[in-house]
Amino acid sequence: MNLSSRPPRSSLFVVMLCFLTIAVDGYDLIVYGATIPRLLEEPGWNLSPASAGMIGSWTLAGLMVGLLGAGPLSDRIGRRKLMMAGVLWFSLGSLLCAIAHSPQALGIARFVTGIGLGGVVPSAVALTIEYAPRSRRQLYSAIALTGYPVGGVICALLAIAMLQEQGWRVLYGLGALYVFILPVMFFYLPESASHLLDRGRTDEARALAARYAIDLDEIARDEEEHRRSRVAAAGARGYRLLTSPEFRAALLLFALMCFCAQLVVYGLNAWLPQLMRKSGYPLGSSLQFLLVMQFGAVVGNLIGSWLADRFGSKRVLVPYFLICSISLLVLSQKPDHTWLMLAVFGAGLGSIGSSTLVYGFIGAYFPASCRGSAIGAAQGLGRIGSILGPMIGGWVLGSNLGHHWNFYAFAIPAVMAAGVVTLIPKATQYDVPYAQAKST
């Protein structure tokens, strides 16, 4: 049946499918941090905090490999195929984690899982932005990326309900069940109209545009404007275009910003339960802090995206990163319960909330012909920070430094991220705030 002959479908349908796939990354973000207290007590494993931090970093090394490879692949073969492959790979990796018989086996399984996850988020963000109206790109991206903290919330709730009684393996086993979303993706997830147009498959792109009520002419105008540059006119796509003088400086700054943000996000999510236990809170209470942090991320993501569509991403990300830093400084002072919860909420809003907004910022900043590569490259290079985050947390926790440094270690890179945002060059025609788009 021809796509154009079917009844129109809202582009929000694509957003919700991307939401479901991005949720796997959020689940994986939390599952290791939630299970560390039990892994440290696993009979016969003799895990130290430093060794546990190293296993967490192996996961993120796999994710970096996946991101760097997935970005160009999504620009070459399309977003749809890569998203489905990533979900399948993640499910198999989670199963391997559930049956791991040693710390080494768990580390290898986490590395494999990370590679699969690398294919999911860049493709999902690129696809979401390409199906979003220009004035709602950040909002649509935020709705899809809300799957990231929502997946974390689901994992935290499951950990609270099951970890003490069922053990850590069940949480990884439940992650493997995500394979059952694949039939839904196979039958209902469309390909990127921008990708089809860029590849000369105009009829297919036109059919999808009619099916999802997107403005194909606007997409074509954006790409035509982009092709006027000397590098694009030579047929450059993917990494070749991304490393051209037109985009090179912006890419490096985005990567540095992602480095700082991911160091904070992954360091906190890996070690927050253990940090709170060291401060005297029981395991169940410590997991609740992780849950509050994820709720802060959801709220921050949705409100921040609404503001970014109206005022631009830079004006939102700077205060968000500063909120994260201030919240961590409050946590370092062991405040009373009300301020404690507000600080954990603010840490989630400013860390994970900022990181999800960065995906939308990158996706809207670059053209379709290198959008997947841009997200993959910036986030892939930035994942060096996510590798160092758990390692730094484990080192600080096992050192003789005072309690305050458990939080100072992550507050400092949050301030650095705010500074980097201010240096990113003026937005291109692809990243236009709502008010400016409306006036033009």
TrEMBL record:
GO terms for molecular function: carboxylic acid transmembrane transporter activity. The keyword Cell membrane does not apply. GO terms for cellular component: plasma membrane. The chain crosses the membrane at residues 50-70, 82-101, 107-127, 139-164, 170-189, 247-266, 286-304, 316-333, 339-368, 380-399, 405-424. It is found in: Membrane. The keyword Transmembrane applies. Residues 14-429 form the Major facilitator superfamily (MFS) profile domain. Keywords: Membrane, Transmembrane, Transmembrane helix. InterPro entries: MFS_dom (IPR020846), MFS_sugar_transport-like (IPR005828), MFS_trans_sf (IPR036259), Sugar_transporter_CS (IPR005829). It is a multi-pass membrane protein. This is Aromatic acid/H+ symport family MFS transporter. The lineage of its organism: Bacteria, Pseudomonadati, Pseudomonadota, Betaproteobacteria, Burkholderiales.
